[in-house]
Amino acid sequence: MLKRASAALLVSLLCAAFLAAQTQPQMPTPGPELKKLDYFAGNWKSDGDMKPSPFGPGGKFSATEQNEWMTGGFFLLSHADESTPMGSGKGLAIFGYDTNDKVYTYQAYNSMGQAEHSKGTLTGDTWTWTNEEKMQGKLMRGRYTVKTLSPTAYTFKFEMAPESGEWTTVMEGKATKTK
Q: Tens digits of per-residue pLDDT, 24-65?
């Protein structure tokens, strides 16, 4: 009887160990969509023109970005230094991918107190990021378009529009990858 109970206990323990081994979650790995963001990894320099807008006066601007993957490869972190007609500033941004909504994500914050939350798509060689925000109590739409020219260069344009109005270019320029 004791041998039978010991054998049953041993079989139960082996079954439990087998089931536990089968149900252990595996470490998640980044999907192929995230590899497309690898284009932006590295150091970039941007130059362009700002049009007079609710964001400030028009004029030339320049920026540098240092973009690197966060450990795990799910988020691309961007640190920026910029010089605009309103002065110098710093920014922090995080690129990712939302597997539920099937869109790229972009969260950005800067030293002027601005926060941006955008969703993006990639069609061919063109990235399009869109967002909505309230300005002075009115809904404004934003659209940031990046057209890749080569592995080391792209053009960009930022446009804004009132809730049901036409798009107006706020800024445009070119970025090049640096060493």
A: 778 889 999 999 999 999 999 999 999 987 667 899 999 999
pTM check: above 0.70: yes
Alpha helices in 1-133 (DSSP H): 2-23, 32-36
From the list 108, 35, 102, the residue with the least C-alpha distance to 118 is: 108
Is 37 exposed, middle or buried (CB count within 10 Å of its CB: 0-12, 13-18, 19+)?
buried
Q: Tell me, rounded to whole angstroms, the distance of Cα 123 from its chain centroid.
A: 16
Structural domain spans, the chain: 32-178
Q: How far is it between the farthest Cα atoms of the chain?
A: 91
Question: What stretches of the chain adopt beta strand conformation (E)?
Answer: 42-50, 59-69, 76-84, 87-98, 103-110, 115-123, 126-135, 138-150, 153-162, 168-178
Q: Which residues contact 72 (CB under 8 A, 6 or more apart)?
A: 30
Backbone angles phi, psi at 111, to 5 degrees: -75, 0
CATH number for the domain whose boundaries are 32-178: 2.40.128.20
Of 91, 131, 90, 128, the C-alpha closest to 108 is 91
CA atoms within 13 A on the CB side of 94: 11
Neighbours of 98 (CB within 10 A): 12
Q: Bridge partners of 105?
A: 96, 119
